[in-house]
Amino acid sequence: MKFGVGQSPRRVEDERLLTGRGRYTDDFQPEGTAYGVTVRSPYGHARILGIDTADARAMPGVLAVYTAEDIAHYGPIPCLVPLPGRIETYRALLTKDIVRFVGDGVAFVVAETRAAARAAAEAVVVDYEELPAAATLDAALAPGAPAIWESAPDNRTFDWHIGDENATRAAIAAAAHVTRLRIVQNRVAPTSMEVRAALAEWSDDTGLTLTVGSQGVAAMHKTLSREILKCPPERLRVVTGDVGGGFGLKVFLYPEYGLVLHAAEHLKRPVKWTGERSDAFQTDSHGRAVVSEAALALDAEGNFLALAVESWSDLGAYQAQFGPAIQTMAGGRIIGGVYRIPAIHNHVHGVVTNTAPVDAYRGAGRPEATYLVERLIETAARETGRDAGDLRRRNLLRPDELPHANGLGLTFDVGNFPALLDAALEKADWTGFPARRAAAEARGLRYGRGLAYYVEIAGGGDLDEFADVRFLADGTIEAAVGTQSNGQGHETSYAQVLAERLGVPMDQVRIVQGDTARLEVGRGTGGSRSMVWGGGALIEAASTIIEKGLDLARTDLGEDVDFGDGLFRARGTNTTMSLAELAARHPQALDTRARYAKEKPTPTFPNGCHVAEVEVDPETGRVRVARYSIVDDFGTLVNPLLVEGQVHGGIAQGLGQALLENVVYDESAQLLTGSFMDYGIPRADDMPRSIAFASRPVPNPNNPLGAKGCGEAGTIGAMPSVMNAIVDALEGTHVDMPATPETLWRICRDLAEKAAA
Amino acid sequence: MAGESGGYAAPDDLGALRALLDANPGAAILAGGQSLLPSLRGKASPLFVDIGRIAALKTIEIEDNRLRVGAGVTLAALARHPATAGGFAEAIGFVGNVTIRNRATVGGCLAWADPRGELPLVLLALGGTVVTDRREIAMESFITGPSRTALEPGEVIVAAAFETGRKFAVEELLVRNSTGRAVVAAACERVGDAMRYTISGLVDRPVRSGPIAGDPGPWLDDLLLQFPVLADASSPDYRRRVVHALALRARERA
Fold it and tell me: Where are the alpha helices (DSSP H) in A503-639?
């Protein structure tokens, strides 16, 4: 079967994954593997007075117990964010003097079996002096708060501004109406289905190999070899097998990856660490965690005049690799969405707390920005008595205003935002809402509707991506791409792209990924970039292959040759040769390593509109999403079925954050939500009964596919649409996430009492 | 210590079970394992005595209008039995999810004595009894607090028994979020002109009312004075109001 771009073949990886033949990191099991376990801090903030490893070392099967002193020659895990004036908070692989969050690693035990390693880890005696902790933004910013870092006595590590503060202030002062909101973005745990794991192997000849679930091996390789191990790049190989969910957290380097490498080199045998779910809750980078105060100014006609935002970004105990970038460089520049807002100012404070480090989580700053502005707009519409759709339509940038520079360093290129809004309202049966509300109210329920128009910055900041295509003896065309599927289905969608360009059946193409021995460069998967960049690299490779093929075909078929439908043809004759035949006649001659590059990084702007309708049961506070519809502009869709699946998963995570998810630390910085018994992730019955999805693409002009990216969009649109709907059902009463039943029940009761009074 | 195991045994009959329990006072009876095993995570495990091979515990028998359900019968099997059609099966359907119901057993649910549990709720609503290897205990006095029962050391639940053919309605609310879970439920059965309510998830055990002609609200208020409130992440006030709403909804369907 020939499948090209725009068709929806089923995922080629599914047969392997659904029949248990996937190979995730923990499935790699070389002969003689030893097992590592991290000894973690039970305190949120404490001084280490001493570590006694003698008993642990003496236990049966124990091969080594490492503490900070044993690995002092390795570099700390770097924070890669170049914000001016940012105070560093270095995180060593193991903590030497002060633990700063529950789960901070103090020792690493390696033993013959997992059970022996676990038992020995419990036998490591750490003498702690507990210190006062600051587990929340409020606690960390309070006068006299304990300083988590000596270098940052007030627990602030940076102060970032963008936009025109004076113009914004002046516009707000002169505005006919100003809507103000304080918004809490709850801290969430990414909860990938496959927990983190790492396996290190040592060879005298080739050095170290790390097998690890990542979102791109090249970046992991670079940080590990340059910053941590400080070894020549050729002495480390990084391999990634199947990955069961990333959502950002698996982009990053965690202490265990360096620790297994150290142990493997030291013990000269394979060493594996596989996290448990409790390790994941404690130590995987968390997401969101920001509090914002925002003001949106409007004139008397409802035109937006200015947007002022001040945010406090909870970074956790250590500034993670991209952590400080999330609310600033990643999300802080898109704070006004694709609306016409003449003056914007965004001010972000970076704050450290005694909690797990916060880093990129599906959307990384863009959901926070969208949530903020969409909550503001919905509130402004209610306050000024305007229809929420009309107010957005009035202020959305029109196609004739594009390209538009938003004043924060972004230039929106293409899109038809008002037309997409109208398509979404039609899809949602916007005008039928009053009848549905009346029907729900007749059943004793409260009913609300919420709208969100999101825009994302995707595929941004990159200069290039790579593809390596080889023609194998059995006729397979094998392509390695420098991105990394975590479940998105790249083996299918990339195969569609390459098969179409080369005019071959899709099943002749095999996509491989995740090995620095094959592709030492590559920028990985994140920020909804894979189709834009990986697709671009494959198209670049296909062009080169066809050019090479034409050259070769001339020697076989004569000077005048063309290519089409997978066939080289001597023009004006019936003499043809397939790509496969040509490859067989000229082994390796068609193999191509392609770089797809741009001189100036130009992000894409996926955008779209979500409309949610919810029922709230006033007697129990329970929420049910009654209707959900979306129209998205992701540019060209490679595989619409996979795209829709990405959107559904994104909605689950956005809805989870809106209704259920919340990482909670108590005052002493103990983690209260350390397992799935305590942390609420969405289940099937929390999801909308159905999701109406439509694509209204305006292809991106700056990449050969015309793709814009789709991985994060569902999450971005779901939070504000669901929360706006809940607020609407509660007559405009402010609610923060997660909107728990008891909270909503109290609001319903208060509203009923007020109505009765 | 984590991961250390006290062993495993799977007797074939009640006699062998008795002998094992007598010889190992610290042993834990393993039925479906759906509550027991998660609770032991990270702790030293006792000797597990698996009752899954004891055929005598897996029967469902009807004598006159009394259903006697073996302790090893799974909730899924019980819900499928024709004699539990209606409210009973509906309540069982609220338990966990299908994979849990496929393993969780009648005896395990009773021994675990979760004050939010659906099986204790309906057994109490029907005025059922717990049959042990020593006696019969009325459901009314079986659960004495969270995870506390009237069972004596070494006493083994062999069955639950209750009257069939009685109609009642059940309503449940499951609240699950990251600050804790709340499960409250109310069953309502028509008794002549009045209603009899059974509720769970509010105080430290499921409770059944006498016939109430009017609003069950005052009865609920009394319960909060009479029994310790169940410690839960959601407030007692909220659960009191919700269980009241559920009781009224059940009344409409009863």
Answer: 530-557, 579-585
